[in-house]
Amino acid sequence: PAPSCASQPDPFTVYFELDKATLTGSNQEVISQAVSRAKAGGCAVTLTVVQGHTDTSGSTKHNDILSANRANVVKDALVSAGVSASNIKTEAKGEKDLAKATKDGVREPLNRRAVVTITIGKPG
Q1: How far is residue 14's CA from residue 30's CA, in Å, rounded to a whole number?
Q2: Is the pTM of the predicted complex or chain greater than 0.85?
Q3: pLDDT of residue 92
Q4: Strands (DSSP E) along 4-87, which ranges?
Q5: Biggest alpha carbon distance in the chain?
Q6: Which among 44, 43, 45, 46 has a CA at the least distance from the CA of 4?
Q7: Which of 32, 15, 5 is nearest to 119 (CA)?
Q8: Which of 56, 60, 61, 78 is the most buried (most CB within 10 A)?
Q9: CA–CA separation, 51 vs 89, rounded Å?
């Protein structure tokens, strides 16, 4: 049976290399598959929130910019996968909301990420 548009997909995470805001082929595939699942059964993507994050290495200012770049790269991939840019909100979290708590200056791969929450509904 096709999924109900009332049941929302789980958020998903895209991970990044140290000090990078580029997507790997596997990251792009994860995004594409998530959009396909969200649109299954005739559902429409009504809102997508992309939160960019960094680890605690680097300055706060640098990490704020890097997290915004990560969120925007994911947004571009979502648009390429068929989500309307007007339905995507990006947030730069920088060093805030760490997935794994660390002291300042620690390189932690789990914190270098973008968290994507897709909200779906019936079309138009």
Answers
A1: 8
A2: yes
A3: 98
A4: 12-15, 44-53
A5: 49
A6: 43
A7: 5
A8: 78
A9: 9
